[in-house]
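Reading is simple: each integer encodes one residue's backbone shape. An example follows:

___
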Amino acid sequence: MNPPDPSSAELRFQLRLSERGTVAGIGDGIAWIQGLPSARLDELIQFEEGSTGVVFQLGKDLIGAILLAQKHGVKAGMAVTHLGSNLEVVVGDALLGRVVDPLGSPLDGLPPPQCRKFRRLECDPPTILQRDFVHAPLSTGNKIVDTLIPVGKGQRQLIIGDNGVGKSALALDAVIHQRDKGTRCIMVLIGLPRSSIAASIEALRAAGALDHTVVVVAEANALPGFRYLAPFSGCAMAEHWMQAGQDSLIVYDDLTQHAQSYRELSLLLQRPPGREAYPGDIFYLHSRLLERSTVLAPAFGGGSMTALPIIETSHGELSAYIPTNLISITDGQIYFDSKLFAAGMLPAIDIGRSVSRIGGKAQHPAIKAAVARIRLDYLQFLDLEAFARFGTRLEPEMEAKLRRGRLLRELLKQDRFAPLPSEAHLAWLLAFGEGLLDAFTPQQAADLQPRLFEAIAPLTLTDSRDRWLERLRNALQDAA
């Protein structure tokens, strides 16, 4: 008698159980499914014809799922199985320079990025013990932001204002300015028309900033589920670099469209509406997204993720539902005023309504000392200018304050896509603070700035104040 085959002896016949559901209804990127009693939220499911989706709502009788990719079309009565895994996206340096959708699939006509690592779209934010204080500055290249409303690495700074006043341009400047600084950037474009998306990508490419940037796109005609997933996908990519001990910057442009996509999904899933038809957990939607941006303690790698969420207001109304939610979540806001934009004050940042609650602690001491009283003096100038419009005769001291205020306003103007280094900020701050520009008209002082920047080119922020002033005086004497 032959001995039994060892390989056949290991085989065992046993019962294997699997769940199968059925599509009860389909429409607007939402599938209603019967069955699958053990399905979990955010779990991937697969339809009989090969399409995929993610569980978004658990009901008593039906499961609501977001469609992610349709191959031949999902129909009622089709069988569904759940895969037992959560939705993940590819992460890593191979994404740099690429334009992808929220699932990591390429949109730039190139082969898929060769990434070996994946990360869940939704995960818990770092704990209190894993976080560190914001202590290092994140330079955006913008005069007003870097001096009067500074941003630190790991901060969440809101950019808010009406449509078409320069919010996206400021975010693009910040991304462009990170070139050669070792900071990886993610631009998340949510619900924008294709022309605006193409313009943003071309601006990054023209400035040489696409090499350190990932662009995650969910355009206006995408399914609401894609627009909902886009910021979480970009956050997972940035979080990978933060956990690896690197610095990252993520721009959400904009979260108004994201909130509207979530409202659309919630109404399609028949969730009870609240204020302005938004669901009751709309605050939790953005808080769990932005809480993942922080700076990690050295024991946990010391990486950082800085967030610049963009939100749109209507007629400058800051007390609307979504703007107030985000103002309460973030560490400050940069407010763009449509009246300043119409008056030609570009960037149209309202300094009085803008604030950075923690960025000042990360600002370089030299810039912090130079800008100590400028914010207060500028706000006083605005009040004095409004009073002077009544034709009141002013004392010579008040006239001098008006002249310096107009000079400062002209110095604060800056062209788009022209970020400046921190040394340039210190140059004009010292020249203005020491009165070196008082002999010039506002327009002359603005035209002299390139000469000042050239004069201080060999210096760094650690050089003495006297050396800076000596070079600035010499440059202005030559100009005079």
User: Anything to note?
Assistant: The chain has a mean pLDDT of 91. The radius of gyration is 27 Å. The chain is about 35% helix and 20% strand.
